[in-house]
Write the structure tokens for this entry.
Amino acid sequence: MSSFGSIGGLLIGSLGLLAAAYGINSTVPYASQAFSVGIVGAASGGIIVWLSSRKPSKNILAQQYENKPSKNDSFDELIKYKNLYEGSPVMQRTVNTDGIIIECNQIYVKNFGNEKSDVIGKSLFEHTAEQSRENMQKTFESWKKSGRVENVEIWLKRKDGSTFPTLLSANNIYDSKGRIIGSNTLIRDVSETYQAHKIVEDHERQKIQLDELKKMDALKEEFYMMFSKECQIPVEQVKKYCDILKDSAAGKLDAKQLETVNEIHNSAGKLEQLIQDIIDVQKLNSDKMEFKKELLQVDEFMHDLDDAFSPMMEEKKIEFVVQASTKHALTSDKTRLKQVFYNLVQNAVDFVPQEGGKIEIAAREEGDSILFHVKDNGIGISEKRKESVFKKFYQVNLSFKRKYGGSGFGLVICKGIVENLGGKIWFESKEAEGTTFYFTIPK
């Protein structure tokens, strides 16, 4: 009986394999049904052979009792593995050696069709994205020769045309002679991993670009500094020779000649100031401007400003008012503070009326800071231009004929210096009424 069971099991198993081999070709009639019946037949034959090979028990009733659960257990195992295949969270598909899909699980159907009938019988290349077709073909041919596919990156294409990256690994299916007749392919969607890698790559690329920009900025800064210093040499020579020409020892100049020499001297001075402004802006941008703080008396500092600006105000016939309501001392950079006042006062001089112009500078205590201001009765700043005042190259009114040239850097430099000294700078202005610039310096 045991021998008959083994022979019968082998016969059933062989027929099952033949049916599965027939069904793996999707082009033949009833291919899917034949494949399913074949798998069940092969499994049943294997079970019969296994049962027949067991040693018979002395207790026949016990043997019959034990045989029944074994058959049920094997059937349950078959159902369990089929459920694992169908319910797997990873996409799975079974293909034959022609690349035709003969089976797939539910998650695969969800990605590539509405029903299994949308997928079964189709070529696996229909689900391969254009950019991976060549790689998929090479992988498929390699699998047929070696029987091995493991973690190959392939982009797949959904029914709606969208694509996504995956990793493919294949378990082979063999016939009774050990030949590969198909494969069961596990497909993992790695979109999230791909996006994470892409973000890292983008960050690396941006870091490289940032490094390149920093190098370019350093080269630009070096060029500006070199260019500015080289320009200072001929400017100083021009001013020097102007002073020589104006010296009576070199020969008396007539009125027209003196006017021309003065104009050359003034233009050279403006160019010199422009060069210095460029240097200061570059130093501020690169945090290389030096600040040397010292103790200074506010009232004495304001008195020095009065002495420095008064000659220019008298020449321009501008009323100049200096107020200092505090004798408090503060620790700051005296030279840089004078530079701030020079830029603000020069800016005010450029825009006050030629007749009746008035400029006021003042200082007073406000909390832990000294509040300074420079007030003028000039043309003022329109509302639409107020946001641009502290930007490079900005001038309040380009159509206004200025009495002095300006680089447009003055207010930018003021803002940079004040903030580096720990203070704030702002302004109030009404068009045609005047402007007041305020800035604070901590004590």
About this structure: The CA atoms of residues 107 and 325 lie 82 Å apart. Confidence is low (pLDDT under 50) at residues 55-71, 395-404. Residues 191-246 form the longest helix (56 residues).
